[in-house]
Amino acid sequence: MRILKLCLVFIGLILCAACSSDSDSLKDEEKPTIRVAYEGGFPQGCEVLKRGETYTFKAQVTDNEALAAYSLELHHNFDHHTHDDQSETCELSPVKEAVNPFIYRENFKLDDRPKTYEISIQVSIPDAIDTGDYHCGFSVTDATGWQRRTSVDIKIVE
Amino acid sequence: MSIRLLIGLSLMLGTKVYAQHTQHIKGNVIDASTLRPLAGVTLVGHNAYAVSDETGAFVLKTVGDSAVFKVSHLGYETLEFKPHATTASPVLLKLKSSSTALATVSVSGKTQERMHSENATVSIAVDEEFLDANRENSLMQTLNKIPGVSTMNIGSGQSKPSIRGLGFNRVSVVQNGVKHQAQQWGSDHGLEIDQYGIEEIRIIKGPASLLYGSDAIAGVVAIQPAKIPERNSFNGSVNLLTETNTDLYAVSAGMQSRGQNWFYRGRLTYRDYADFKVPTDQINYENYIFNLHNQDLRNTAGKEADASLSLGYVSPTFRTETFFSTVSAKNGFFANAHGLEVRNSSIAYDASNRDIDLPFHQVNHIKIINNSTLNLDAHRLHVDLGYQHNQREEHSEPVPHGYMPKPSGSRERVFTKNTYSLNVKDVVSWGAHTVSAGINTEFQNNNIGGWGFLIPAYDRFTLGGYVFDHMALTENLHLQGGLRYDAGYLDTQSHFDWYRSPRTNADGSTSQVYAQRARDQQLNFGSFSGSLGVSYIHKNTTYKLNIGKSFRMPLAHELASDGVNYHMYRYERGNLNLDPESSYELDAEVRHDSGRYRFSVSPFVNLFDNYIYLNPTAAYYESLQIYEYTQAAVFRAGGELTAGIDLLPNLSLDASAAYVYSRQTSGPKDGFTIPFSPPFSTLFSVGYGIKDFSLFSETRFTGDVRITARQTDIVPPESVTAGYEVLNLSVMSKLQVVSGKPWALRLKLNNVFHTPYFDHTSFYRLIEVPEPGRNFSVSVTIPF
């Protein structure tokens, strides 16, 4: 039994050492947030955009420590392969093949490590692209490497 | 018990008076399956005894010819030996290994290994009895009850091992002496090994590169060759299994036979299961909601068909066995989200819970292995030769991604791996020393296909040489140590996208190019490993202490990947400057077993100079987060604790706990843990045996509760996983149905309360899918 006690003490010490050297309080364990559904946020769920027009895509992002980068991505959803994470369900046009779909993918850095920021990206929608259902994705990272994504279903018409 | 005997005998040695009219019988004791000499075997008769020496030799001094000797050795079945006046001298005694079962978790004695190179290494032997009693849907889930061993599950039918929180390529799975080489780097890949027909598995917790080379940095799951059948025997069994949760039907039939020297065995296994049921009607992943039909996790059905055959020859000096096996499986993946990517589909997934629609994967693993052992006077020569072919195809609905237009066909990723292995080992016994020296070589040829790119095609050659000495200082005090050097060569092939993406040129203009995803690259690696250990046996307690250095060569994708993993919404970038991982570990074990009480503690401390992991950076590439293979120093410590008591001869209580603490101490995630850290976990079991009644015998009820703590120690992009408690119940019995061998029955109820809980290391954890709900299973084994 003496051995047993010694072992318990030994493992207890290891556990204590493990816990006391913990730096949990110093680690950043919070993801950034991202919000499109506010007044001024663009596009709202099921928004209809026109070819040839220029729009300013806007979203509000925050982080507990430091925001690092964000991106905007637009791709077609003619095959209904995915759906957005906004509350309402948009009415989709019939499934069709893509001929010349619009693709937009851009990344932006935030060098001054803000805690809040309003994403504001001007996107011109070309005239020659396929009209139909599109998907708009925002994502943001913080300095630690946590990421948050959100997506919105939109439509591009003539 | 044999240790007591041994100690008793050694005390007697000094006082024994030689009997009159002595007759001398000389002989040798060897292991019946490995044919290795066994040292320290006791032969006890009415008034005589002997203990075999390092070469297995013994001299018995007996009186008359009526004596019966008990030949016993820890870890072996006791044999009765009755010499007659006509008995030829020297005699050859063969002992059969028996992995002793302690309650539900089988933990075998280490004595056999004292002469083996794995000595002093903290290892656990799992026998057939344990495997039968705990059989789950995949081999690693079956082994999950062993403290320190956890699994990474991909749905209900697939899993891969994790030892003390390290998995993927940091655990080597070895079957019949040859390293199992498949796509173990992948997060949605399981182990392609038929879990039926396995008689013994030895699990090494801790670095074992010295004997197993690269990849054994966290431990080894070594599936031992099956024992050689007895002379002039023919036997076999059929196992039938059905389960309610996945509506599973499985059958496995095996047989073996031996004449004088030649033997053969074969096995066929077929399993077919439907989608697994989870204790929820709805999955909430980020802002997405997936409604489940009948709580079925859509499209996770699967099937598996395995066959194996082996042919062998055994004589006192030579043993050879050639083993052929094929394992084929088709497994569906959850339809609503593949990886992290949420998917819509027009496929009628809910029409049947048994069909396997897209996305799914199909795997086939073919193995041909030869193990040969030649026993010469002082030398034992082992040769393992292996060929493996692994084919994995991942199919999903073709959709455009980024600049990639809609591809044709569903073959997204195809991985083909051919592995050729050769291991040669010579074991020499020389006084108190047993020296092993050997080489391990392996050549891998890896090809890729399909429209998705994740890792480049590559060839890999590794060659390692080692020397290892085991020294018996006294009967109870053993030292061991060894050194090894490995050299590795890796040749990755270049890869270009099959579609064009826009690239901004230096002058600001944009051109459409086939982006290069991998470069043609040749890399060389070399690394030393070594270990030093001591074991000491005092009465019923064994003490072990080891210090060792292990290594792991970087993998092709860690070095050379440069592509988009759309299913995980990330861009994965390799790093050609990665060094081989090196790990230093100090571990110890104290194990006490006095029959009624049992107790063990196995703490460890481990340092990695340069642990390789996929680090999420803050940067983007084409709107996808860049994940980069990075190296960081890591400190780990933890251990396992087990305790058990037999309150009554038929009532046992057992408890075990496992904990690992991990910290990155450098690099971009300094202060964070490492990915896939298992939470603190405990298991409490009660076993109760009842008297034989009617046609039932050896009936035993078991209840176990797993209590797992909340895992708050996470690293991006993981989420905190809540703790849980799950109750499992089972009853096993032998049923004498007809004359002949009794049938083995097992009824099992897993997750009795249909508790929704999450496993921190499960593949589906990422998308908030709970573990399987209540499952009732019935298994019958009919021996013949």
From TrEMBL, chain A:
This is DUF4625 domain-containing protein. Keywords: Signal. It comes from Leeuwenhoekiella marinoflava DSM 3653. Residues 1-17 form the signal peptide. InterPro entries: DUF4625 (IPR027829). It comes from the Bacteria.
From TrEMBL, chain B:
Residues 121-220 form the TonB-dependent receptor plug domain. Gene3D superfamilies: TonB-dependent receptor, beta-barrel domain, TonB-dependent receptor, plug domain. Belongs to the TonB-dependent receptor family. This is Iron complex outermembrane receptor protein. It is a multi-pass membrane protein. It comes from the Bacteria. Keywords: Cell outer membrane, Membrane, Receptor, Signal, TonB box, Transmembrane, Transmembrane beta strand, Transport. It comes from Leeuwenhoekiella marinoflava. One of its GO terms (biological process) is siderophore transmembrane transport. GO terms for cellular component: cell outer membrane. GO terms for molecular function: siderophore uptake transmembrane transporter activity. It holds the Pfam family Plug. Residues 391-410 are annotated as: Disordered. It is found in: Cell outer membrane. Its main location: membrane.
